[in-house]
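Please check the following for our workbook:

***
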Amino acid sequence: MRDRAADVPSLTAAFLGHYSGKFGKAISGVTPSAEALLAAAPWPGNVRQLRNVIERACLLCEGHLLTEGDIARALGTRATLQPAGVPGPVAAPAPAPSREQVLDALDKAGGNKSLAARRLAVSRRALYRLVEKHRLDE
């Protein structure tokens, strides 16, 4: 797969269809940032590793799209590993969730901040900062 990076999106779609059905989840696709993370991964384990990552991401996914957070969690520490001597992609920091996204996540999580933080792919501490920043605690 390292030599056939163009195959990653089609393999991802096939595995996503299989595992979303297997787990009874209505996951319809992958966000652009998650797709970029998948394309940038070195894939030392080839197709089997991609399949395992998509399976774990489907289990972790709480929405209708696999997010960069789902993929990063499924990759674990391997998401930051690069082969020696090969420069990795420079990722731009993800934009902070908007006030509406934070409200939506809190609403869907029934006020459970841990679950809302997972939905937003941020730490619980970061969620508290967002709540304070957007003055949602008033």
